[in-house]
Amino acid sequence: MRFVLVVFAEIAAVVALAIAVPTAAAATGGEGEAWPTFNESSACGAVFTRTPYVEQPGGIPVDEILRGPYGAMFGRTVAQVRANITTWRIPGSTRAMAVHERAIPALELVAAELEAAMALGERYVIDSSQTSSLAARTIGGRSRLSRHTFGIAMDLNSRRNPFRDDNQLITDFPDWWVDAFAASGFCWGGQWIGSKDAMHFAWQGPAFTPGGELPPGFAPLTESVPLDAKALVTRVVPRPLDGTFGTLLADGDGSGAVDVINLSRLGADLVVDASVATRTHNACSLRRSVVIDAPDPVAFGFGDWDGRGGHDLWLVTEDEGFLRLTVRYRYGDYSAETAVTTRIPMPDGAAWLSTADADRDGALDLVVVGDNGIRIWDVDPWTGAALLQLGGGSAVTTGTLMLGDADGDELPDLWSLEDGTVTVAAAADRFATVAHRHEPAGVPGTIVDAAASDFDGDGRTDLVVYDGRYKHVWLGNTPLPDGLPLAIWFTAEEPQCGDDEPRWEEIGIRRGTGGFVTRGAFAWLERSGFPYEGCDPTNEDIMCPPRPVSAGELAASMAWMLDLDPGAGTGFDAAGRALRDAGYESPCTPGDGACWEREVPRAEVSVRFWTMLEQRDGRAPEPHRWVWPEA
C-alpha cells in the first residue's frame, strides 16, 4: 500500500480516454512493481537482486521447489527449469552452452555483436574444458541459489579469468567481448565490487535486453484459497524515530520480501528506516538511508520508476494546482533525483495514490483512487508528460487500499481491507465490480499498513497487515508440497544478531558507520603496503565498535572498489591521487591531511558511490524497456 494524505477532484480538464486494459504481454501485477530484474551486482547498473534461499547448501535435486520471482520467471522446480533448457553455441567456438530458453533473445544479440567484431578480424579462443553453464546448486557452501541453477549464467575460460576475493581483476577477455555481453543485458563478474569473478556472465532479465519482452510467469504449484486463516505473526523489533510521519510495507532490500519502512523528517532531510524481513525484523534488521533536501510530501510511496529493480521513493507535492512528482532513486541509495511538474490537476477531495504497471508495458503508472472512482496515468518521471490511461468508477474506494494480482492474470487489482473484510475490484473488469470478497480471521484492530503480496513465494497473492508492532500474514493458496517454512526463500542463513552488530537503537542518523567502507579501506591500504590505524574490520576474533566513516576511508574504499593502484604519496593521499588520476572525484584534495579525518555523512557516501558507478567505463547498461505511449 501507499500511505497518503492527498486530495483529488473530478478531472474535468482532461478527456478520459477510457483505454481498455490490453490482453497481450505480461507483468507482475504487484504494487510498485515494473518488470522483474535479476541483477547480480550494483556495479552492473541496477540494484542487486537476491536469488532465493533453500534448505541445504550444495547440489539440489530436480524436485526442489524454486520460490519467488526467480521461480516465476524460470520455473517453479529444478525439473521445470530443466524442461526449458536449450543450447546456445558460442560464436567462434564449437562449445554449446546449456541455457534457459528465456535468455535466448539476449544471447542472440550477444552472438550478433561478437560475430560483427569477428568479421572485422577480432579473435578470442574458448577453452571448452574450462567453460560451463547449467548447474543446480547453491553458492559456495551457502544456502542461497546460484544463477547457474536457472540457466542464466555461464563461466567462460575459468583458468584465464579466475575468481578473486582480493578484488584484483585477472582477465584475458578483450573489451569487445565484454561489451557484447553488457550491451545485451548481462552482468560481468569482472565488474563486481569487493571481489572479481572474471569468468562469469549472468543475464539481468528482459528489462536490460534491447527489444526484450516479458513472458508470463510459470503457473503456481498451489491452488487458490480464501484468505481465511492467519498463517504467521512476526514481531517487528525496531521502533520508529521521533518525527516519523508514515509507515509502509514494501521491499526495502531487493529480496522480494515485505519489509516495514518508516519515513521521518529530520530538518530538510528524510530518514528511510527499513526493518528487513530477511533478518526476521529482529533488533539488527534496521537498514537506514538519509534522503537529503527532500520536499514535504502530501503523498509518497515506493516503486521501480527507473527499471533498475529497486523501490524508488516517490514524493508528491502541489505546484500551482498541478501534481509535482519527485523521485529519489534506490540505485545509489536515494542520491539521484528527478523532479517534474505534470499536467495532472492537483486534487481537492480525499484520495489515495499508488503505483503499478497497470497497462503491462513494463513502466510504472500512477494510480489515483477517490470518491469519484479511479484514474490511472502514464507518467514520465523525467519530463512530466502524463497520459490518462483509464478513468471511471470503482467498486472499491474506501478502507485500507492496496494493489495486487488477485486472480492470476498478472494485472494489479484494487484491494480494500475495511471492518475486517477484504474486497477486490478486478483490473480486467476496469474495477467496476467486486470480484472477490474475503473474511480473514484475527484482523488486528489497528492497521498501520497492508499489502497484497506473494509472501511465501508460490506465485499467488497473500495478505500482509502491519499493526505497529506485529506483521500478520494470511495465505491465498494451499501449502507448497515440500512443507518448508513460509519465509525460507528470503530469510538469511543466520538472521540472528551477531555479537558485533549494532542494534537498531545504536545506529546513527547523520554519519555512516563501519561496514563495507571500512573493510574496503582496510583491504586497499593493506594491499598497497600502507598501515591502517584503527580496528581491523576483517578480524573476526575482535569486535570493532560502530563509528563514523572518515573521508580517507571513503577514498580508500572507492579505490578498492575500482581496483586502482596507489597514486603518488602514502595512505589516503595515495588513494585520493589514484582516484583523481583515473578520472574520479576524490572526497578530499590530496595533501589536505585534515580533510581525510573529516566524518562523512551517510548521504555523501551514497552520492559518491552513485556518481562513481555512473562514471565507470560504460559497461553498466540502462534498462531498455522504457517505451513512452503515443497519445
The proportion of residues in beta strands is: 15-25%
End-to-end distance: 29 Å
SS-derived structural category: alpha+beta
Q: Mean of the pLDDT scores?
A: 88
- Give the CA-based shape: globular
Main sheet record = 4 strands, antiparallel
Give the low-pLDDT segments. 1-27, 624-631
Write the layout of secondary structure elements.
Layout: H1 68-74, H2 78-83, E1 85-89, E2 96-100, H3 104-119, E3 153-155, E4 163-164, H4 175-183, E5 186-188, E6 196-197, E7 200-203, E8 230-235, E9 244-250, E10 259-266, E11 269-275, E12 286-291, E13 299-303, E14 312-319, E15 322-328, E16 337-345, E17 351-356, E18 365-370, E19 373-379, E20 386-392, E21 400-404, E22 413-418, E23 421-425, E24 434-438, E25 449-453, E26 462-466, E27 470-474, H5 515-528, H6 551-561, H7 571-581, H8 593-596, H9 602-614
Antiparallel strand pairs: 1-2, 3-7, 4-6, 5-7, 8-27, 9-10, 10-11, 11-12, 13-14, 14-15, 15-16, 17-18, 18-19, 19-20, 21-22, 22-23, 23-24, 25-26, 26-27
Helix pairs in contact: 3-4, 5-6, 6-7
What's this, in brief?
With 631 residues, this protein is an alpha+beta fold. The chain has nine helices and 27 strands.
Descriptive overview:
The protein has 631 residues and is of the alpha+beta class. It is 14% helix and 24% strand. The chain is built from nine helices and 27 strands. The protein has a four-stranded antiparallel sheet, with no helix packed on it. Strands 9-10-11-12 form a four-stranded antiparallel sheet, with no helix packed on it. Strands 13-14-15-16 form a four-stranded antiparallel sheet, with no helix packed on it. Strand 23 and strand 24 form a beta hairpin. Helix 5 crosses helix 6. The longest helix has 16 residues. The two termini are 29 Å apart. The N terminus and C terminus are likely disordered.
